[in-house]
Fold these 3 entries.
Entry 1:
Amino acid sequence: MTEPRLETRALGRSFGALKAVQNIDFKLEAGARHALIGPNGAGKTTFINLLTGVLPPTTGSVLLAGRDITATAQAERVKLGIARTFQINRLFRGLSVLENVCIAVAERVGAAPAMFYPAGRRADVIEESMRLLETLKLADVARRRVSELPYGRQRLVELAITIGLKPAVLLLDEPAAGVPSAESHIILDAIEGLPKDIAVLIIEHDMDVVFRFAKRVTVMVGGAVFAEGAPKEIEANPQVRAVYLGQAGHGAGRQADHA
Amino acid sequence: MTSRVMAAIAAFAVMTVTATAATAQEVKVGVILPYTGVGAELAQQIDRGMQLYLKLNADQVKPYTITLIKRDSKAPDGAAAKVAVQELLTQDKVDALAGWVYSPDAIASAPVVNAGKKLAVIMNAATSFITNLSTDYVRTSFTMWHSSYALGAQAATTLHAKTAVVAYSDYPPGRDSLDAFKNSFEANGGKVIDAIPAGGPGVVPDFTPFFQRAKDEKPDVLFVFVPAGDHASAVVKTYGALGMAAAGIKLIGPGDITQDIKLQGMGDAAIGLITMGHYNADLDNPQNHRFVAAWKQEYGADSTTDFTAVGGYDGMAAIVHAVQATKGKMDGDDAVKSLLGWKFDSPQGPIMIDPETRDIIMNEYLSEVVKGPDGKLHEKQLAVVNDVKDGCKALAIGPCAPKK
Amino acid sequence: MTITASPAEPAAIVARLDHPAARVLTRRHRWRWWEALPWAAAIGCYFAFPDYLGFGAELLIAILFALSLDLALGYAGIITLGHAAFFGAGAYAVGMLAFYGIWTEPITSLLLAAMAAAVVGLLSGLVLLRTRGLTLLMLTICTMALLQESANMAHDYTGGFDGLPSLPIAPVFGVFEFNPLYANTQYVYALAVLAVCFLFVRTLVYSPFGQSLTGIRENLLRMHAIGSPVRSRLVICYTISAAIAGIAGGLWAQTNAYVNLSAFDLDRAAGVLIILILGGYGRLYGAFVGAIVYLALEHFLARIYPTAWQLGLGLLLVLIALFARNGILGLGEALWRRYGATLSGRYRAGRAAS
Amino acid sequence: MDFATNFASILLGGLSAGTVLFIVSVGLSVTMGLMGFVNLAHGAFAMFGGYIIVLAMNRAHIGFTAALALGFIATTAISVLLERLLYRRLYRAGELDQVLFTIGLIFIFMAVIVIVVGPESQQITLPPALRGQLNLGFTQYRTFSIFLIVVGFLTVTGIWLGFERTRIGAQIRATVDNRRMAESLGINVDRLFTITFAFGSGMAAIGGGLGAEFLGLDPQYALKYLVYFLIAVSVGGLGSVVGVYCASLLLGVLDFMLKLYVPKGGTIFIYALTILLLLWRPQGLFGKKET
């Protein structure tokens, strides 16, 4: 396949005067392990929101395997294989870990609209979800209510839900954010364990994570692509060091990233 | 304040006691009134009227004892009233039913009353056709036609009005009084130039826009029907505030809008207000003097009788008459029969139950609000219309036409 | 019940499905012994309290109405204060058909009532369900008020405030008359209708669809992000809920043989909401508990103290709100958890805290 | 009659009606915006205050202004009491539990008033100065309405200044904007809430007293008008004082005008208007996006 899995052409989004994202040409090949870094407010999350269809772009287009999906609704894009995790957990806090995953899987396999037989009859859905939890080492807490888990584990569930959608493109918005470093390795292991052919784009502040995981890195500053290249090049790039690496870390006011 | 609490507790005690005490001579009367909610005040007046009759006429009741079993009909949705009637008949095995402030309650109860075959005395509900719904219904209160129909004629004759604007609360009693007034006013050469639905019965609207509209149309009289209580006082205040009297527009309406318990609160704005009603506390007859005096003694000097209270009073009189006539048996048909053509010398003057319709026949008094020497507002009688029937049924209009 | 039992399956799969968490899901929809209690009780009351069947019928209708709300509010998290709109639509559908002698057969008119209400639910749902929270709450109230006011303005047909009296309702199956004085027929009829609707709702909430509704209640954005057509799910749920509310309304009109504007009252909508919260929402049986406690208390308090019975009721509501989370059932579950929970006990407790 | 006077009367009537709505609702808006606490019992405080005011005038024969002050103080006191003892426990509870609680509270208020004062509705007797008509040069209008409009304007300006100029005001705005942030900045949100809650209830009390002229006053008050208060709040936008003011006046005037020209419409307009406004701006006229 010649077409990249995911591609954007001159993609831009402004909020009034503020150009949150401008004129981004970006490619994500099958099996890519791509990191997106940049200071707070660089527009990383806005970019993700444009890819997933949470926000409509003001300029440019988004292509999935060569097909223009700029106008496609969020739900549709998920069906087409774009899945994401959120910077802040979005879980069914009141439900058990297993059911959290089941809801996603049921949605993917198209069971969800069924009204007249019990969800419990869908052994396939439950079994698959259970298997997923096993691969993510969550089986032991499968029965627990999500809100009872430590935050690190909750991030895993966040991940499990997205993997349950069997995405072709996986967008991870700071998967390790807020996870105590003691636990963060769980997440990283999980990410490294992802099926090879999935194209993964990860937003991360933690450089160790980035360099351990990414084959390629894009640096965003002020809503535009500032630099792109292999981790080594980026690390070596003096400007990047100047604008970013120098002041890396988990800053407050991450809300700014949310548009 | 504390006296109220005591009263409440007492009421509670009495009810439990009476409910249990049962003698051979006992006649049980189920009372369905909205003891809570918007109608609670009327319920209190009617309740007191009933109690007062029993107190003042103990000798009439002998040798029987009348026990009141009270049920709250709550909101005017009919449901609570209907269930209450059902249980009063099937559980408490009452000998008669009484009350009904809201027409929807009486309408909803009709099938049950029919099946129950017990005398059912309506003490307030005013929609005319209710008495057609069950042959056990007898009404001692009034319909809007009584006052409004009489007033229509009087407005054209006694008050020499040529044009009128009608503002009414947009629900059946309101529309009834509109029809009634229009009917007789135009039959007597008047002309209703505009009819303004002024909000509903539930919430008191700001009457200013409606009255503004009426004022612009410069009629001789503004006929208003709204529910007694807050609506009425709001009407009078707005009328005064808009200076309509100065503009030469007389405010007239059924006695509802000068309900005695509200009159003083309306203030001087009410002076000159002309209403047609079957009762007001200032009626000059011995029965009424006795009634009012006893009332003030019983319930406090600043409380007063009004047309709802007299509905309860007369209703209880009717029940007692039926009790005596049936020797306490109170078989439904006999009880009702005993009241057909029954005459009674009420505080509102002579009344009679129409043998055809089981509705009340009574006098209507045209009166004007004046300031008395005591600095309080009073009703000065201008004219009397004798033996007024419910015009709606008399003229067999719409649903009022007796079912065959 | 499921394929899991079949020996053809590899051991691993069987093992996974045998995991406690999986067992909760595969067995959640199974009938528990205590689920027979309400129905046994209802039938028992028929014989135990023959004098109270009129009130009993009202109670059953209230349960059905609350059940319909539970579907929208308890499961899909649609917070509405306008559910009487659908109750009223159903009631007037039945009432006007009967009053004008067009259609008086009870069961089929209930279906018509359901349809009428469903149409109202679908149309309003399509417009309103874009919004959430207070806005949605107000929009539902106003829609209901609009319907009520329209019904009032059309008084020539609806009877306005006085409503339509003495509806001629045909006997059930052409045999069982509605006796206004002794409500045996009404009671049994209402109970049967309730049972049917309950089975339907129960199936629905345990279905994958029901599961996705729970998801919407628990986290709207996440449902969007897993590609769930949230809006249409909500509209469908709202429409079904409306249809059931319509059946409750139709039932009300039939058993009382009248219909009036109060069918659309805010009091009614608020009342059913209170009943559901009091009993505990998102639990199916909250509707039962809430309606019984609330209405029975109101009924008997109003007898001993007609002028100020709200006092007792108010105290109950305040106490429950203060000391129980998610109503009486929530309280029950909390206690149940404290004293050694079973698997299902703990699972549902999880629901309770949501 | 000529258009000018007609227009003036519409405006004045609508504004005065709207003002009452505003004075009662403003507290509800701020407390809901601040804590997201669904306080359906807000009207009960208006009712309570209204009763204090009217009874003080009719039974104790206290002057109008003194009575208003008394009502304000008494209501503030009881609201602080309830807030400290009961409301506090429900801040973190779900909104439905809050609904249950506040409805229960309304019932209790209703019953207590019936027991202590009685079911009859209370009449307010305005001081002579406020009765009758006032000549505004271009038109005559009822004095009390004009009085209300002025009071309303002064109130909103006062509150607005309080929000803009005082420290507490700033804290309130910050908290309404973003509660988490405010808390992390060390703002004592609970204390803020107690203050605004008390003040809002006091305002409601005043509104109950002033509104009695139009709305009457009876044990049903708290339930009867609840929807109108909520409409004003939701259309105005949670937590926005100016919003509630504009919404109240807007609704007041439009409703008034439509009633004048199409009385057949009954109460339908206020609801239709609300639906349209909320569909147009779900967060309310002055509300922050995403409520």
Note: Residues 123-135 of chain A form the longest helix (13 residues).
Entry 2:
Amino acid sequence: MKRMLTRLAGVASILLLTTQMASADGKLSLYNWGDYINPELIDAFSKEYKVDVTLDTYSTNEEMLARIQAGASGYDLVWPSVHMHDIMQKLGLLQAAHPNQMPGWENIDKAALRSHEDPQGDYCLPYAWGAVGILYNKKLIPDLKSWRQFFDYAKANPGKVTMLDDLRETLGVGLIMTGSSVNSRNPEEIEKAEAFIMQQKPNIGAFRYDVIPLVTSGDIAAGHYYVGGVLNVLQNPDLLGFVIPEEGATMYQEDVCLLEGAPNSENAELFMQFLMRPENAAKNSERLTNGVVNTAAVSLLPDNLKTNPSINPSPEVRAKLQIFEDLGKDLRVYTRAWDRIKTN
Amino acid sequence: MGFLQIASAHKAYQTPEGTLVRALDDITINVRSNEFLTLLGPSGCGKTTLLKTIAGFEDLDGGDLILEGRSLKAVPAHRRPFNTVFQNYALFPHMNVSQNIAYGLDVAGVKKAERDRRVGEALEMVGLAGYGGRKPSQLSGGQQQRVALARSLVLKPRVLLLDEPLSALDRKMRETMQIELKNLQNSVGITFIFVTHDQEEALAMSDRIAVLSHGKVQQLGSPNDVYDTPANEFVANFVGTSNLFSGRIVENDAARGLVTIETANGRRLIASGRDFANGSAVKMVLRPEHLRLVDTGEFEGAGTLEGQVKDVIFVGSVIHVHVDVGFGRTAIVHHHHDRAGIRNAIEAGANVRIAYSPSSAHLIAAERG
Amino acid sequence: MNRILSSFKIFPSVFNIYGFLFLAFLYMPLALIVLYSFNANPINIAVWTGFTFDWYRTIFGGAAVETTFDSAFSESPQRIFEVVKNSFLVAVSAATIATVIGTATAIALARYKFFGKRFYQTLLLLPILIPDIVLGIALLVFFVGVGFELGLLTIIIGHVTFLSSYVFVVVSARLAGMDTTLEQASADLGAGPFTTFRRVTLPQIMPGVVGGFLLAFIISLDDVVITYFIAGVGSQTLPLFILAMMRRGLRPQITALAVLILVFSFVVATVGLLLRNRKS
Amino acid sequence: MITGKTVQSRKTQALLLLLSPITILLGAFFLIPLGIMVVYSFLEPGLYGGVEWTWYPYNYGRIIGWPLNDYETFEPIYLSIFLSSLKIASLTVIFSLLICYPAAFWVSRMSERRKSFVLFLITLPFFANLLVRIYAWLLLLRPTGFINMALQSIGLVAQPLDMLFSSFAVIVGMVYIFTPFMFLPIYANVEKLDYSLVRASQDLGATPLQTFLRVILPLTLPGIAGGSIIVFIPALGNFIVPSFLGGSKVQMTGNLIERSFLQSRDWPFGAALALLIMASVVLVVMFQVVRSSRAQARGAA
């Protein structure tokens, strides 16, 4: 028995050693959203540059920020949303990787340089963007176009729709429906948005992220979801649909940023260049079904992606999309409103 | 100077309820070489504590323990040349008999060949040759007892400590083991310190007995001393059965070596004794087997008592007769039933006369207070 | 209750039916997971489309054959291997250290009298008793405050903190049932404290020590809340991996992995049970 | 003489050696972290997480109504979330008790061989990954899930029941994951139950109900109390089950704490909430300690 324990301890120390040994040479640590990069790209990069890539994932910008601030200093690249990119740059958590001086920068859509802090792309590389709309089950709702329809359906079928468990996204819908900016700092406007969501709440089945299986199975008719859901729509076009509501919607964009103190900044820069190659950008977009920031990649996309109105919306629709900005201390007003919504 | 001196040993501890118990209260005993010393006393008298401090499982609060002039106070249990036979034997359940016996030798670094030889001898000695491969759980209580003995003796200790080792055995087995233990002690020539609460066991086996009560040595002496001339009332009562009569010396016949005691209600009893002056308060100890039920007039010059039979208890070899001798006292008489002459008289309610030889009466000074 | 008692004899079926339902309650969710791990539907495990072994195959790096499998829907075998390795590394290290510390503590509290013993007894129960979210954030705040880099090491430390208490409880129970005179006997026969521990105490409490180790191992392997707060770079463990995935809906591959881990746990638990039965 | 030490000082040395690892471990990684958390709960939240080193007792004001400043207003919702957490945790205890108590009797009356096999069966499911077990309930409880399908096919309900994303689902999930914590202490107690006492009660003329209430229940009460505490505490702080089975609509204090740390970047507020939970746990534990030591004192007297 004692021998068994000794042996286990031995195994443990060997494992510990091997993990440390692996970090000695050619490594790259990515900290990305879950399901937000095509795994084939990572494999291809590893093979091409003989670099050992590790990928950890997070679910919210705040979770990522908390961990980076909590001293998770071993990561090289992160994928913050634009407003978080601004925050992190202000907090000095990022270092300039100068993607704008790298080969392939010419492919990047300059309209995608949305950061206030980084208008020239000195720090981060725009990665992908998309709208947050509604994923729905066509057998239950044949044709969905607007938030109005979404909430009316919910009223008739309480519990059959979900919204995201994200305070800014869901309050954002409230702000859009009450005619305010999703970045409003006006407590009265936020209060109105809160009241709107509160009014809908009895009909909303849940606030959650894992809506794809529920919509597919018909447990839920429609769910507030990211454009990434189009991947499922394309695989199951008769059953699923995705729409950017007429009233407007929020949009997001993530940039790839190099962290201050990144242990493998050279590999990280190589990875940025790798992402800028049109064929790689296209391969990634196929998987993410997000808006493309690489103009050279568009022509490489399959037709059903190129023409998809959700992935590649018309200028009129684009005009109705709003992106989040950092609210500083005013975020607390949202937090309170969100706490009340979830409780009452 | 003794072989092992227990010099004014003190130890006290706190009970969970908060009272202070003096487990050892100034105990001094000079243990002789190769003797069989028994520590006898009721539970809680301190005998087990004393044994544990000798073994080294517990510290003394005060006093000392000296083996051949060397203090043992700073010597931990595993370095003392003493071994213990535990009440429950404490055989290692995960080892077989041989491994148990070999344990001490192994720990001491004795080579395997030598070890095997000595384990074999030890098994032979306790009559368990061939049992080496068994687990303790496969042995009877008596066999476990022998293994525990062998395990201790194989180390040739200077002193063997035995903590009520026979208490878990049935009566027959216990008697057999008493003889075996005594014989073993004679043949190995090791000092045995034996703890028991069973006075018969103590009397049967010991060279000397230390009677302990409340952390103090009440009497230290040979079995005969302890039984025939108990030092105090406690010893008289604890060792064997005693009839005790308290009174005051009223007559002192120095020529015949006889004294007369008058009890509180005026009854007069005689006893042999010289050490007490007239007027001193004493207790007279009469052993039940020294009392006889007699016909009137028999045994001139003997001490006598009259009374009425209360209970007659037949226990086999003798009859225990409880006689109400007045003044609230009951005398117990061990009556041999071959004395047919008076057998008919022994029934509850009968008036009887009790006689004793004055020399069998032992006087002790009445304790004050 | 005497009626209930006699019902054991007269209507044993009443209790047996209850027992059957109880076991069904325990096993229904597991059966479902096992079933769905063979579901061919690559996107949505909730909709049954057919039977496949593909998910098991892909865990080990094999290619899917039966399903319309798209590598985009699966995690790479390397990634799975990595999180599983992290989990096992944490579980083995944390359980080993916790076993040593917990056992030492159990011996100290069982065999020695000292001032402050009650304090220790209470303190040792606290890591088990406080909600794990409290411990998780306390550790997070602490590690950040003192500038400890979050990673596998912090996870191991965090796990050891509460696992030691579990081991302590299990080993203490075993020690309480052990005859203390055995240790005295060993000292009496000339063995020093260390020899006594190695040759007498340890063999006696071994079932408790192994049981404590296995319990700690399983708890560590399954811990999500504390790990969630104190994980750092490259230190994602399997439960965190599953948690992240569950936020988007469970993948069939994960159900297959869960079944494999269940089988593994089954083996560990069986070994533990056999050991216990053999010893007692 | 070899080292000149008494038994006692040797023991002290060994004791120090044995106790120092746990002392260092719990001191550094348990008591100090808890202490830091207490300190943090009185500091001002940093704008982007972390804390500002300013005395700021208003985090508590937000929860209990005092003290307050311009920025922090009293929000009764936090207390109501806490109360509903207490309610959900209590219901979890009650239901798992109702499920496990008869089961313990069922197992305790078995033959030894069967008993150890059934105990093994009962413990085994809890070796499966916790999250996967919770997810399984999501699959079971959803409108097109197994339970609804079964209910509909036997004609018990016409429309699928809305069981998922409700307090009910949260309680079912928690009862499921905490079953062994309730079962094992109760079983340990029931197994020791001396049935001759039950027969004695019967013999003395007690009705079945009286026997149960006055003999069986008091004798198994320690197991019930132990199991209840062991279930109540983790249930109170849980956030995983409500976030999956409650659809984030059923809030427990655990969810608030998690959100304070990982979403709304308000660490001090999260710390204050965590201490609220901690305080209630300490109260429950102290209550049990007092109760059991009183019972012990009574037993000793």
Note: The two ends of chain D are 46 Å apart (CA to CA).
Entry 3:
Amino acid sequence: METILAIIIGFMIIGALFALHAKDLLSALIACGIVGYGLVICFLLLKAPDLAIVQIVVETITLIIMVAVVLDSSRRELKEKASIRVKGISYVNTRYVVNIIAVILFTALLLFFFSESIDVLAPFGQHATRMSTAYIEHAADQTGSANLVTGVVFDFRGYDTMGEATILFTAVIGILTILRIKGKEK
Amino acid sequence: MESLIVLYIILPLGAAFLIPLIGRFVRFFAGMISALVFLGLTALSIVYISAYHSETIRYAVGGWQVTNGIPIAIYLVLDGFSGIILVMINLVAFFAVVYSFSYLQKYTAKNNFYALLCLMVAGMNGVVLTGDLFNLYVFMEIAAIASYALVAFGVEKEELEASFKYQVLGGMASLFILLGIALVYWTTSTLNMADASRILQTFAGYRIVIFIQLLFIAGFGMKSALVPFHAWLPDAHSSAPSPISSMLSGVLIKAIGIYVLIRLFFTVFSITYEIALTITVLGVLSMLIGGVLAIGQWDYKRLLAYSSISQVGYIFIGLGIGCW
Amino acid sequence: MTLYILCFALFLTGLYGVLTKRNIIKIVIGLSVMEFSIFLFLALIGYTNNGDAPILVNGKEQLLFVDPLPQAMVLTAIVIGLATNAMLLAIAIRIYRKYGTFDVRKINQLKG
Amino acid sequence: MHGMTSIVKTVARIVVGVIFLYGVYIITHGHLTPGGGFAVGAVIAGAFILLVLAFGSDVLKLKVREAGSSTFESISILAFLLLAVGALFIGTHVFFQNYLPKGKVGELISAGVIPLYNIAVGVEVAAALVTIFLALVIYKEEVK
């Protein structure tokens, strides 16, 4: 179980790196899809069917919208070159190299700090419930919902869900505002 | 009287949902209803401050009782501090609406403006009132997304660019905060702030707590335009419509940045010397750099934005010293 | 613990994209990768060994469930992520029509 | 916006009905099986997007649809808020209380207000996604 998950997450990291380095924006989007759909498989393995269903449809719709945005652009990205050419002699682009070294050092440092700091917490698969003990034990008789996630989302924490529906409403009003043709009346 | 606390959420949200429906047919509906809502909420906050200034009101949404000593509901909490912030938010919003009546003459889509303003105020009220970590994230996002759209309200080049910068930095900040909340949940298995602080006491001094605190400082520092993360505020401030500029540096950076940081660091976490020092140093930097950069500005709005950054620095110094 | 560290590495990959890439679409991709890693992180936290998916089935005796609260949080966060992405893309398409490019180095009307 | 070939149109015409049926199934069983308001909203929005992509449409028609879907969205989210506020007046007068009878666990009509919330959120999400998509398409069509 852990090995399979680790392999999938490894693929997701590779997909993300490819998405960030692809020259063509359309292939970058497809590679981003690897990460999204890999996440769906992880959700299925982690016993979260609700999340898998939502993620797979939302990912598809996001991809459609992103492709619609990218499709009629030039799709090319201006790249930073590893070497620059002055008067026929090629030099190594120092800014590029410094960037790479800084990124690697910083990543290693953060990963080390993170792995050092999480060693006091519960390991994978041995999560102890506290707040959700009541959610699991009383969901059936107090909310009447057989799907515990629905019980939590709409009853114990229905207030969060209202906020979330409001966020979608806000985004729609915001998009209608941003995409109107004329901003000011003449 | 205690149960009227939910009006802070219901009234602005209801107004925002009604405006696209009714505002199309009734001409001054949007402006009038938002002004009325904000005025009413200001009055309510003043009543709360004068009547309940020494006690804390707790309201369990959904009516879920404490089981086995663990609070399971989302709590709304109102004490003296949040009362003052609520007065500020709703009063400034009321004045912003009154000013927009004439300011918005030259813009189209006025209804959307008022709806977004109502949503932003609802989000800020929700952040100030909540006693639950994930709920805080949700309402913070409402306020943030509404403000992204409001900054781009003029849809000219500068507005779009400022809004894009603001969205990228704000989105990163939100994700840091969400990661911090996930780590708190992993550590404590609860989302209630009071309950989490009880459990975090047994983790005092561990590296995980420091990591979470750094994530929260980075996230809420970006939201409140603290100095290494201040790049968005001058642009957003100078491009936004004037009523929104006043909302941005007047209440938004305080309500979803500084207020939350104060709430978390004084009630949920126990602060070590190093973290307090970090906050103080960032505050001093913010104060100095904001002030120095303000000298070279010729645009009044940018000048005021840098002044806000400097003032944020003063508040952070107070927070850092108070934590020692 | 390896899984959590890998998951954090995914988060850092997204962060690297947001901080170093100069293309609007790449920045959006970086932000969504960061989002995905946090969803995965929450789902990993809630997993219990040998636990069942949190759904009661009539006539089946179930004792151990996966924690439903992180799942509810992820469900909320997915939709929030969708909303932020859609807003960013709307701005991106509008910027593209105004400037003719997705490159942020060419989009600098504002100084500072 | 142009439509696609008649093969795509024929397939879309058949598939859309199935997708709708699937959506209705999940939304009514949201409290019993995996899925619920959000999944359904996205599924139904997907069906609408498929229709628009396959058959194509002119800008005027799209604008009418956009106005319709955004009205739908406002109404459904208002219904959600009213359902929640209704709890202030019924039963123990607490915001977001589940005030309808719970019924027997595992039956279709059970769980009090949860199915109603599910339907409201489903319609809201579907209308929101359709509005976002239509707004992008209209913008792309009008500003060349």
Note: Chain C has a mean pLDDT of 85.
